[in-house]
């Protein structure tokens, strides 16, 4: 039977009927170890009991009212995010790309509010990924994503990753801000060097422009900190979060310092579903777990274990693996062979992962993975490497 879906995702054949923890199961009960987690979305694995309980309780109480009214779990989640981060204010959306869009609007509105109406241009880095709506694809300039959709540059400039001289040269009197991922996801799990990040912060302060971090993939505990920039010691003015924030339920958030957020007065931005009770009830449940005693310490312990295992496999199969990158449980496998071939071999042995740029593969296991489950994933990866060696 042909699919009624549009073909923008291709036509994947592998389908799952249920999930539990780190595992996915087909209708025939074949079990796969899932190191994709919905592309870093299911941060606590599949069907986490605390998240299920929170969603069911809220579903039995109140689904949706819109932002015409105050919403208790939404107010509570915003307050908790502020208490746990650099931010003073939060705007809730439904996805990462919407959170990024909000940040872009806030950058431009901030300068407009202060009489600098010409400051509308935003700088991004090569190999970045900020979403699939028009402004984010314009920011990233990926030829595959912009073909047939973009006319002109839509107010965005792009500079090479890590090149401070190019960044300085790109700043003009029309520049509103800079957006970057502290750890690039789609671009191949590349961590921005600390010295570069510090310099970017100084440049923004020097020129009176805003710095926005896209932590849609790297945030919510993925790197062993609530947000990746905490490990790098540099704070932004704005931050986009999503994916793991809902643990599998759609939600996005744009976090902001007060001096930027104050320009977003009534009517300047909105979302019908953003911050709805179901999403924020689950978001609160995610934070319950992430902020529990020792949770992030255990994330780092499992990350150390996973990296050590990958190091051993790299030494054993140098024609397949060429090392790793990333922070915490956001791990990039550098491939000596084709990453597509390795993904295919992994799937054959029932280990699932995600393709990324730079001929790499992303390993994104649940943050609450056990030591035994890490070993199981490494054993399956070893079998895939042996096939290709």
- The overall strand count is 17
Helix content bin: 25-40%
Poorly predicted regions: none
Describe the main β-sheet briefly: 7 strands, mixed
Structure description:
The protein is α/β, with parallel strands linked by helices. Helices cover 39% and strands 18% of the residues. It contains 14 helices and 17 strands. It has helices at 37-40, 49-59, 72-84, 96-113, 134-140, 143-146, 164-170, 194-207, 229-232, 258-261, 277-290, 295-316, 339-348, 371-388; strands at 18-20, 23-25, 31-34, 89-93, 121-125, 156-159, 175-180, 183-184, 190-191, 210-214, 238-241, 252-256, 321-327, 330-335, 351-352, 354-356, 360-363. It has a seven-stranded mixed beta sheet, sandwiched between helices. The radius of gyration is 21 Å and the shape is globular. The two termini are 38 Å apart. The relative contact order is 0.16.
